[in-house]
Design brief:
Blueprint: H1 9-63, H2 80-86, H3 91-124, H4 130-137, H5 139-142, H6 145-155, H7 161-166, H8 176-203, H9 208-216, H10 221-248, H11 253-259, H12 268-278, H13 282-312
Helix pairs in contact: 1-13, 3-8, 3-10, 6-8, 6-11, 8-10, 8-11, 10-13, 12-13
């Protein structure tokens, strides 16, 4: 029994949610205005990207659906160029180029990650002349790739310094595996500092108090690296590896200058340029470029879904 005129408790319990909903409704216009303002800020960038990236991609996809005639207008053939590239007369070149590209990607990324991690660990330590060491380490990364390729081609020449140091006469660009490993070595030398730079940025976010607590608990250097350094720097490693994978999957200039694609060193990007410019087959070249884009996109998507998103969202199961 309630007194007459007393507020009903049920009315009070329902008033708060109604008020909250009203407050939420009042806040929505502000959020929508912020969203519209953000959209107008981003719109110029989207327009530029659509013109610089979107139009060429769409144009290449459309051109890949036409043949490559001589002396007549191109005719629509649908997926004919793709079928010819994957299972037809161009299949051998395509799969060989894909295999070479994947070899370069796998070997260079692994080597660069190991060497870059070691370089970052050294540069992260406090010692006299650390700033000079950091500057010197980044010099290879600052050198243009074309210049780097010419320098290392001279170094791996039959009369170059590499053969002089090993005391053997190796034709590094004259056969398949020496040429491939020479390219891997040159690419690793150039871009390992890039990995080191990103990993070093991740290392500098780790508090030294964590290491001090681990030392007090009796953890050795290896245990501290495995249990503290590696889990906490893993997001930086994920980003660095992703960038390098996307870069190596599109590699062109280094093997082009080194071997011109000879001795099974031709990559997908080199095959695209060869078909489009060398053989004057715009349709086939567009199909190959589209396939290259799809391969790069799928590799990045699988990498992010399997490892990247899990780590970057904090679900990697690292040290607590």
């Amino acid at each position: 029994m309630t007194l007459e005129g007393a507020p009903d408790p049920r009315t009070r319990t329902q008033a708060a949610p109604d008020g909250a909903r009203a407050g939420g409704a009042r806040r929505r216009p502000g959020r929508s205005r912020e969203g519209r303002f953000a959209f107008w800020l981003v719109l110029p960038t989207l327009i530029v990207l659509a013109g610089v990236i979107g139009y060429p991609v769409v144009r290449a996809v459309v051109r890949s659906l036409y043949d490559d005639p001589v002396g007549r207008t191109p005719e629509f053939i649908g997926l004919g160029n793709y079928a010819e590239a994957v299972v037809g007369s161009g299949a051998e070149d395509f799969w060989a180029a894909l295999s070479t590209t994947m070899f370069f990607t796998g070997t260079t990324v692994v080597l660069e990650l190991v060497i870059g991690m070691a370089m970052a660990l050294v540069m992260n330590r406090a010692f006299r002349g650390r700033s000079i060491v950091r500057a010197v380490v980044l010099v290879p990364w600052a050198i243009p790739t074309a210049v780097c390729a010419v320098l290392w081609r001279w170094t791996f020449d039959a009369n170059g310094i590499v053969n002089h140091l090993i005391g053997q006469q190796v034709l590094w660009t004259g056969s398949e595996w020496p040429a491939k490993w020479a390219i891997v070595f040159a690419d690793t030398w150039k871009t390992a500092p890039f990995i080191a730079l990103l990993v070093l940025a991740g290392l500098q976010t780790i508090s030294q108090e964590i290491y001090e607590a681990a030392r007090v608990d009796g953890a050795g250097p290896v245990r501290r690296f495995v249990s503290i350094t590696l889990p906490l720097v893993r997001p930086a490693i994920v980003v660095a590896v992703l960038f390098r994978m996307l870069d190596v999957l599109r590699i062109y200039d280094l093997p082009q200058i080194f071997t011109h694609g000879a001795n099974d060193t031709r990559t997908l990007s080199m095959l695209v340029v060869e078909e489009s410019i060398g053989n004057l087959k715009a349709g086939m070249g567009s199909a190959l470029s589209t396939l290259t884009f799809l391969i790069v996109f799928l590799v990045a998507l699988v990498y992010i879904r399997v490892l990247g998103a899990r780590v970057l969202n904090g679900r990697d199961g690292g040290a607590a």
